Amino acid sequence: MKAITLGPEGTYSHRAARAIADEVTFAESVTDIVEAVAEGRVERGVVPIENSIEGSVTESLDALATHDVAVVREIVTPIRHALLAQGEDFEVVASHAQALAQCRSYLEDNYPHVAREAVASTARGVEQAREDPSVAGIGHPDNASEEYGGGLRVLAENIQDRTSNATRFVVVAPETERSDAGGKTSLVVYPNTNYPGLLLRLLEPFAERDINLTRVESRPSGERLGDYVFHVDVAAGLYEERTREAVEVVEGIVEDGWVRRLGSYDTRHVLY
Ligand SMILES: O=C(O)C(=O)C[C@]1(C(=O)O)C=C[C@@H](O)C=C1
User: Domain ACT, which positions (predicted)?
Assistant: First the structure.
């Protein structure tokens, strides 16, 4: 199986993708990854969705709401960041915005005067550190190994603000591979309207059928201010009658908008 994910080599996304694919290629953004799968150029894409410290990866949510793809699995993995540089004398810490945010307290306590620069991925920041002694990167400690080019020291490990840091990735496939089998289901709901109690009405069909919501996230639709797209995850599969019924009720409520069924899937926990 071939998969595309956020590059270059050594990103957390790369580590997650290796769990489901034997050949991994790289893109510069999560939108490019979802697009490559939607256009049938690659069999699978792996994108980060949510982190336990910093919350949603909004670019991924928006890409899932706007491309015809299916979610066929989720991968949950612990994230333990290291500070990597050629030496102690650096002036900038470069990393993915999520990683910088996950290490905010550590950076404020230890490097209050060092600038922070958000780059496309953790591995991209590490790459800069490898080329420039005035830059430090934040990423997986293995990025300092010879396998990735060497020349870097691990200045500190486990620098994320909480020990329990974890990121949830989803595995994206062409829409034709959408499945009803699995213990979780992801939906994107665009009501295209707004009135008191709308969100309550959209969620009640799940509560009434004893279906646990595992996540509700609202994203601006981009159409007008105050207009939202809702990302809803539930702990039930579309193979279950109660789930299909609940989704049909929601579809009836949002007849001026739409419901995208991203599909049902299971969770894989990857430790490394
Ligand atoms: O930059 C990387 O290494 C990524 O795979 C991206 C990403 C993210 O977007 O959340 C993945 C896991 C970590 O939470 C930090 C960064």
Answer: 187-264
Considering the domain architecture, whether residues 250 and 130 belong to the same structural domain is answered as no
Asked whether residue 109 is domain-assigned, the answer is yes
Ligand 1 atom 9 nearest Cα: 48
**Domain finish residue from 125, 142, 177:** 177
Is the complex ipTM higher than 0.95? yes
pLDDT in tens, 82-115: 999 999 999 999 999 999 999 999 999 999 999 9
Q: Is the CB of 121 under 6 A from ligand 1?
A: yes
Cβ–ligand 1 contact at 51 (below 6 Å): yes
Ligand 1 centroid–CA 52 distance in Å is 12
Report d(CA 80, CA 78) in Å as an integer.
6
Q: What is the pTM of this model?
A: 0.95
CATH number, domain containing residue 63 = 3.40.190.10
242 Cα–ligand 1 center, Å: 35
Nearest alpha carbon to residue 193 among 217, 218, 228, 232: 228
Separation CA 209–CA 227 (nearest Å): 28
Q: Which two tokens stand for residue 217?
A: 């996230």
Q: Is the residue at 219 inside a domain?
A: yes
Count structural domains, the chain.
3
Q: Within a 10 A sphere around the Cβ of 142, how many other Cβ atoms? A: 14
Provide, rounded to the nearest whole percent, the portion of the chain with pLDDT above 90. 97
